[in-house]
């Protein structure tokens, strides 16, 4: 039987673990997973990675692309090129920081038109839930968004205001009526304050972990009242973990994610405004608790929350600097560096960075090496080190807190539906 592509690796990360295998591709999909040492099947193209690991393409469901409207911050061409270089083959774009925000069908059409012909990986879209648009959420759902993002505290941009408790429940009742998903930036605005000064400790004190925990409790209550599914975005605080675990144990349909910067960086080492994000990077002991929550399944996903800006917005004053970490190209390497040192394996990383996000968004055929799935594959050299050079990344602006850090794990190749992504010709699709 002839295939379009066969990729062999002694370290293929499959659903049942890591083992030698040959992945055979036909018409953009995985046609078979064969023994590594099986007689070579007939194929138009083949690659033997040896001891370089073969992973499914990662899925990143939390990316702020910002195009149109703020394309000078980031855009579809640069973001998806960076994604592919980092082993990410599918992203889901957040509805805010672009102009217009994706809060109605017309805005979704504008965003899809802006992305068309530019994307190097597959791209889906979240819709937005803001005050006054609950009646339009079904239309966005029918137009193809994967769920709805809302804020419970100010978003940082005026065109995407937060929901209060009544607005949250109104939107969630509507979302429950068609079986949709609400994804929530959960910080209680009553517990947030203006920083007392320009330093990082003052900024950190202005956004305490308790603000996240209280907001998570509010979302859990809203889920129980409305029947809607909900997902907590970018958990930074260990204070959220107990209410999340308790709700899940009771069968409440709520899940949660965290991000590479919360798992690999600490408040003690913050060196400049490129580290600023909301909610903030917290102390080392808090980071350890987040890793424990991943191992226990309380947190199910690791996604980037890639939220870039231009350099001029990253002023030295932490009270005034734009809050967002740029890391889309670096997430896999950053997580592998930390995870491997803590005793976790590639199977764990794939569960958190591919399978979990794909399941969250309902992306059938993504996130796993299995027959019938899209042939989205990554060659990942787990033993290779490199020093991050922000100016060499594909992100539009050379800003990242990882600049100058040594990370372990290099993406050697990325395939999207069986085609090698080179960054020259866009191969991605709009989902």
From TrEMBL:
Pathway: Nitrogen metabolism; (S)-allantoin degradation; allantoate from (S)-allantoin: step 1/1. One of its GO terms (cellular component) is cytoplasm. Keywords: Hydrolase, Metal-binding, Purine metabolism, Zinc. Its cofactor is Zn(2+). GO terms for biological process: allantoin catabolic process; purine nucleobase catabolic process. It holds the Pfam family Amidohydro_1. Homotetramer. Belongs to the metallo-dependent hydrolases superfamily. Allantoinase family. This is allantoinase. It comes from Thermocatellispora tengchongensis.
